[in-house]
Design a protein that fits this description.
The protein is mainly α. It has one domain. Helices cover 73% and strands 0% of the residues. The relative contact order is 0.16. Keywords: Membrane, Transmembrane, Transmembrane helix.
């Protein structure tokens, strides 16, 4: 559990960093898959075979999961700061 540092700031936990970077990574992955689908469509690739169905599903699933990770980080941060301020 994180504790208050002498200068008064609440430290960032490892879970917060993991969730924040996971959210960023999922958003980047979804943008890359979006552009891959655009490029593949313009190149007249067969979107029903190969890796294309996975890329298409990733485009629908990654942004909501990234948003949920970001909301979890915000909620945990607010709770931790409220607990730290309650101890003053």
């Amino acid at each position: 559990m994180s504790t208050r540092t002498p200068d008064g700031d609440v430290p960032i936990r490892r879970v917060d960093r993991i969730l924040a970077f996971m959210s960023l990574g999922l958003l980047i992955l979804s943008v890359v898959s979006f552009f891959a689908i655009i490029i593949g469509s313009s190149a007249k690739a067969d979107m029903s075979t190969g890796i294309w169905p996975t890329v298409g599903v990733l485009l629908y699933i990654a942004p909501p999961v990234a948003f949920a990770c970001l909301v979890a980080v915000l909620i945990m941060s607010f709770v931790r700061r409220a607990r730290a301020n309650k101890g003053r």
